[in-house]
Amino acid sequence: MAKPPRNSPTARGAEASRRRFESRYRSALEEHVHTPTGGGLGEAKELGRQASEEGISLRDVVSVHLEVRGDLFPDVGARFGDVDAFLCEFLSMFEDLQMELREAQGLAIDDGRRIDVLRRLRDVAADLSRATTRRAVAAVMLRATLEVSDGKVGTIVFFRGRGRGRRGRRTDLLATVPPRDARRLRALSAAADSIEGLLEPHASLELTSLEEVRRAIGDEPSAVLGAASLAAYPIVWRSKVHGALIIAAPGRRVMERIDREFVDAVVVMGASALERAGRYDIDHEIALKLQRGMMSIPSCDVPETSWSAHYSSAATGLVGGDWYDVIGLEERIGFSIGDIVGRGIDAAVAMGQVRSAGRALANCFDKPHEVVEGLDHFVSSTGCGEDSSMAYLTIDRRSGELAYAVAGHPPPLVIGHDGTVMWLEGASSALLGRGGKRPSATLLIEPGATVVLYTDGLVERRGEPLDAGMSRLVEAAGGLAGTDNAARQIVERIGSTGGIEDDVAVVVVRFIGD
Q1: pLDDT tens per residue across span 469-503
Q2: CB 350 within 8 A of CB 342
Q3: What whole-number distance in Å separates Cα of residue 496 and Cα of residue 492?
Q4: In terms of domains, do 251 and 301 share one?
Q5: Which residue of 300, 320, 327, 460 is 20 to 30 Å from 74, comparing CA positions?
């Protein structure tokens, strides 16, 4: 459908309606985010009524939401889900209103395509708000749009650009259907390269005949894709085309207006989510490199013990503040493990500072509680790593005396050479930065004993008692034949029983003795 001229009465009226809607939406969203009880949702139904009566499209609704979100919350961070939850609630209210209107008009609810589309769009908005990487975002977009377009082959492509000296592929296929067909992947990549130069920021490319498809992408790609028609929707942020949703169909497909509105709205929401995910990907890579660099351990070979350590990030890909250290001392060897509150670059930096301070203190003080006291003072005086946890222990390489102190951290596990299980719970104290008495305790372990230090992500699962996770740890650690890669084996064994949701650090120590 052709758009009315920009200065026509119709266009001016539509723009005025959009501005009124945007003003009300802005006030309601701001109230929703800043009111602890989630205020502002009461306005959602009236907003839905306005959008319905004034013919505001789904694409415009989504665009208004993203514009208002960007103005009010440019650095939304952890509150991203809260902000986009308002859009989901609005769409739910909009759906209910459409059903009421259809009932009032005596129309069958089952015939309401618009209601079905609103329901789908609400679900897509929720899925996009949970996706943290570009590939995850692209998968949500592709899955949603293929369902309404009758496309058999599709991709979300990211354009790398054509900078001077750039070689190799110009495009990245972030998600494809079907996913593992090598010939189609090559054809999609070739099609994306051809389409890149044809796209404009605010207009989709629709090729409705086989001749048009061949002319645009070439004979071979069109044959491999089985494409008698093809549509490409530009993925735009900051007024620049960064990628495209490309869908190929074996026959001519003319979408209904409501389906087209749905695809347009998904592409607009997806573009915003891809921009956010791109920033996350960069932050994640920096944080992971920073964390790995800071967790490097100097050579620490002690004949009387053997040990292994392992770190893995959360299933979401978010880097946390889990850390460990192994410190060679004169007659002892020290092992520490901790968990910094937060995620990302800030957590990785705080982890490095706390870990370095702990290593320095371990070289100055013999008793574990002295190290924890010093670290507690460091945290409280600097604010770095506040409310974080740690466990620190030393093993006398000759006698097997184990001394330990724990600050708000899960208790280390000791498994004797005969299979006896002991949790080191006799020297627990508050989280770092909270002050108070910092006790330590000692015990003798015999050659063949295994000590496991770990962070809470290894044993905690939502909706499950902590005892279940502790039992899994005992079972996983008890079956180890040695310490080579033992820490990784424990993580893999526990992960195979249902997945690990949080980031995890594990240190496994075997006391060999003289």
Answers
A1: 899 999 888 877 666 788 888 988 887 665 666 78
A2: yes
A3: 6
A4: no
A5: 320
